[in-house]
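Fold this sequence, please.
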Amino acid sequence: MPRSSPPRRKPGAYRILSAVALALWTVAPDQEAQGQIRTEEPEGAAAEESRIPEIDGPPAPVAPLVISRNDEGDATIRAFRVPTPLTIDGRLDEAFYQGVTPISEFMQTVPVERGEPSERTEAWIGFDDTYVYISGRIWEPNGDDGWISNEMRRDSQQLRQNDNFGVFLDTFYDRRNALAFYVTPIGGFADFQITNEGNPNFDWNPIADIRTAFFDGGWTLEMAIPFKSLRYRPGTNQVWGIQIRRSILRRNEWNHLTHVPFAAAGNGSQAVFRVSMYGTLVGIEAPPTGRNLEVKPYVSSGIQTDLTATTPIRNDAHIDAGFDAKWAITPNLAADLTFNTDFAQVEVDEQQVNLTRFSLTFPEKREFFLEGRGIYSFGSGGFAGGGGGGGGGGGSGGGGAPTLFYSRRIGLEGGEPVQVLGGGRLTGKIGSFDVGALSMQTDGEPEVGARSTNFTVLRLRRDLFSRSNVGVLFGNRSKAVALDEGSNQTWGVDGSFGLSTELSLLTYYAKTHTRDLVGNDQSYRARLAYDGDTYGANAEHLLVGGDFNPEIGLVRRRDFEQTSLSARFSPRPASIDWIRRFFFEGSLDYLENASQGFLESRDRGGDFTVELENGDSFTASFSDNYERLIIDEEITGDIVIPVGEYDFQDYHLSYQLGSQRPYQANLSVDWGGYFSGDRLSLGIGNGRAELTPQISIEPSLEFNWIDLPQDDGTVRFDQHVVRTRATYTFTPRAYVSGLVQYSTGSDSFSGNFRLRWEWAPGSELFVVYTEDRDTDVLDRWSTLSNRGLVIKLTRLVQL
């Protein structure tokens, strides 16, 4: 064991961080673009007036007018106070709707930029002392034959493939962050957060009441969003950013309140991420803040069998309890606490095929880590360009920027769960600063090699100009994985700069400290991207040192220096009425060993995509690969790729069935070389069959047949994953789903069945059954690995 010694100081890194922190405080953001307040501190009514940001757009309409516009397509709209609370039933039968003129001046974004919408849409914005009200009348003369609406479950990905009406609120009026709410004709609704014009968090679940109804000419909707579910600037008189969207998917048409050019809108759905192009909402009068404390206790009980544990257990019963709490310190800053944190209700990870030499990543699904997670995004920007991509990423070579904070490091060790004792989080906005702080404590689990550990992350990011920011991040893990004793630290500085509507620059510099790792422990990146509608190009350089070790983050590959180049041409052919767009793209990833300087990986290729007017798309691509292995690499089981240099090519064809169809899927075939062997892959991805608007089946299949020479001859090994999810939705807030998976790589067959019922706003009941078996799918004598049944009840109490 290495002798314990004090951590080595990093004076150079500390000086850099100190200088950047000073710059964060002293560099002033663009006051006009962000509506920053004056530096004087007036009192009383003058103080209230000083906090109202200047309008970035047309002047406010004077009541009873509801909207004003300028020649650029920008809009400012007025909200009106509702004299008596609205009954949220989707029916627009209150006097408010007769007394206030609806907003109806929408414009096409796709397929005709600034075109006239094919159908009429009307919207109202109102408020009282408790709620913000969003209402709409959606004209559709063909009734339910005219709209696509085949999903009811809250936050389902399929909702994005349905006709919908949505409102997007920039409550800080910082022109870069927003909260989204949208609903489909049959009442399925979703909500998510947008951070830094990107980084969507679809797992944010605020309290809101959303209902729909039908009338002879289409459908109507009402939303009641509590002020307590929102964060905004202090003061009564509010100025917010706002975008309103309607999609008409039978025509693949997207309409918005304001003009969003093709370059920012992409296929239409991406337009809402360009927060800097939102309209302005005036007239909202926020109520005084009260105690604004929420407590969410839980109780759970279950029974578990685990025959793979060091000490196997059978039918072990347990009962547990804990709580989460949220305190809104100010309207724009909130603290969260959690005690005896429980994640039993979380759906299991989907099985993946890994044919690379590097680790896979899985999405975070645990609720506590989801809210406000965009603040911890480091070095990845957030600009949601609509042009269609054009960046390198390392492909199967495993390149790509590391993740400095990967929340799945907390509560998991080697894929095994570890008890989270508790912790806290602070998130929000102070002036032009985004603030994030997180500290969590886990218990020790000797059976999986986990020690009781504290995880701490601090994040500060300052808005600059209209679409830029700079920030710092610090992370600490009290017990380093790489050491028997000692801790691990990570720190970094990043910047994201919107140089124009299409041009952006992204950069970061980061270091880590782990005792006894004395090599290159730094990483840096710079990426310049032009993302226009017809043309796009990226140039990027990335370095990850051999001893760069962020143990609260994720690094798929170390000790490399990568240069990536790409270019795109994506015309919209006016002469072919059934084709919306072509994409031609070429890319090069060139990756060298950072410590020795030799070429280690190279990937050069081309892609051709045809996007059809009906929503379908076809893609063909080619890749020429080079890999140099300096050690034998084990891919799976006893399959080893020996040291050597490998040149091989692969090809890809796919056809995406669009959302207008009752059966959807991405059908694909890949073939070509695989190091010194050959590979054939067939896949059905993102499959979905609509049986009724309440019942759906989502199959996903991936079959891989690989022939690879070994010392004792050519070996064929197969890597297949079969996955099916079935869902029955009772209401948008109650559903039962089952996920069944089989993987040949692990010879495992598993099932996860979940009932989720939001029985009161923010309060939920979960019933979860999980079973895993070690098996060959043809072997009826399968062996049980583990199974469990959990019942969990939560209750939200607002104080």
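The helical segments are 11-26, 31-34, 44-50, 95-99, 262-265. Residues 101 and 653 are 51 Å apart (CA to CA).
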